[in-house]
Structure formats: C-alpha cells, structure tokens
C-alpha cells in the first residue's frame, strides 16, 4: 500500500513569469530515498523551493505532508516547514552561536517550551549524525563535513516526514561527501523519507536509488541499469 508524502500531478513551476518545469508528475512514498538530478539551471532548485513554499504553485495539483501547495497560505508555510527537514548546500548555520544554541533557536521558534525536552532532543539528533560531543562548538570551529552533519541533525529536530536535501554534498570533497551520504543513508534506514538534489553522479553509482531528472522543462524518472 503506497503512502505518498509528496504527490505532484500535472504541475507547472514558474520562476517569476518564466516557465521552469511543466507537466510534472511525481510521487514519493514514505521511506523512499529519491535523487533529483539535472544540469545547473535545469530547475532542481525551483522544484525544491516549490516544495517548501518559497515558490507558490499556480498550476496543477501538489500535496506534500498533508499540505496542499496550491492553496498554501503564507501563514501556513512555517507549519509546513516543521514537517519538512531542509538541508542546504551552504549549511545555513547561525555563526554567532554554538551548535546547541543553533538548535535551541530552531526548537523555540517551532513552539518547544520544555528546556529538558529540548536538550534531550538536541542530544538525540547530534548522536544520530555522530556529532554528540560537538554541541558546544561554534560553526567556524567545525570542518565542512561536520557542519553538514550538524545541518542534517538540525533538519531532524522536529521528526520531519520528509527531508529535502538540496545539494548537501555540493561544497564537500569526495571523501567527506561519502561520509555525509552514509549519514543520510542511515537516517533513511531508520524510516526518514529523503529527496536529495545532487550533481554528484559518483554518489548515485555508489548508493543507487530511485532517480528523477530535470531536463528540458521536464522531470522524469531515470531507470538505472543494473551493473
């Protein structure tokens, strides 16, 4: 029985007045790990931005974690994002505070009140990404790979139904990319659904999974050949 956390039907995505992607039909089910690939400028970022409410959906039907993207109100976007974990290429950590304080900021902003519960949750997510002892450090004291692990941990804070990872290894060297990918694979094994935009084809070969490609205003599934 399929259990879609994302369903797009006959969707067109615009950036301003220009059509970026048309006739998009995509379904991602709970527990899936899905890649989104395509050249720079092929629409990957616009696709992601539509999913977390940065670009408004004006054509077609779109449902993501119980929200209707067509009727999504500005006031609902923060609630949608609580159900999504978003990981960016450039980490987006607040540089003026420690890792723990970065996480407290997110939890307080999303309605957590109990200090003990917040501290427990922070320890849980840092442990998941192998960063349990790094909570007192500032972002600049961490390597790029460590910062990305922290960014993944932050995305997990509110037990998201879907993690959107937008080029999470884009700024990392190949070895560190593999380490970050191992973290994402582990999280996926634990039941988290992940959609990952990437241009790192080496990762697709090493960790094959369902793959969507943006090309010539279309999104289609790539059938991977078995080696």
Automatic annotation (TrEMBL):
Protein name per the record: ATP-binding cassette domain-containing protein
A Pfam family this chain is assigned to: ABC_tran
GO MF entries: ATP binding
Domain ABC transporter: 6-225
Signal peptide range in chain numbering: none
SMART domains according to UniProt: AAA
Top-level lineage group: Bacteria
Organism placement in taxonomy: Bacteria, Pseudomonadati, Bacteroidota, Flavobacteriia, Flavobacteriales
Keywords tagged on the record: ATP-binding, Nucleotide-binding
């Amino acid at each position: 029985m399929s259990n879609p956390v994302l369903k797009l039907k006959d969707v067109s995505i615009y950036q301003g007045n220009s059509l970026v992607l048309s006739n998009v039909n995509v379904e991602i089910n709970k527990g899936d790990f899905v890649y989104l690939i395509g050249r720079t400028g092929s629409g990957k970022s616009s696709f992601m931005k539509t999913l977390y409410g940065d670009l408004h959906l004006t054509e077609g039907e779109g449902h993501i974690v119980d929200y209707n993207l067509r009727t999504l109100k500005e006031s609902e976007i923060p609630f949608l994002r609580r159900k999504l974990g978003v990981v960016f290429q450039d980490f987006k950590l607040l540089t003026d505070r420690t890792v723990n304080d970065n996480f407290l900021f997110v939890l307080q902003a999303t309605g957590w009140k109990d200090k003990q519960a917040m501290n427990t949750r922070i320890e849980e997510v840092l442990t998941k990404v192998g960063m349990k002892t790094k909570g007192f450090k500032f972002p600049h004291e961490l390597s790029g790979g460590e910062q990305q692990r922290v960014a993944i941990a932050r995305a997990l804070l509110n037990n998201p139904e879907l993690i959107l990872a937008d080029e999470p290894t884009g700024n990392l060297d190949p070895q560190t990319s593999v380490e970050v990918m191992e973290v994402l694979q582990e999280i996926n094994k634990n039941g988290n659904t992940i959609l990952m935009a990437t241009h790192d084809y080496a990762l697709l070969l090493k960790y094959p999974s369902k793959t969507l490609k943006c090309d010539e205003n279309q999104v289609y599934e790539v059938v991977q050949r078995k080696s």
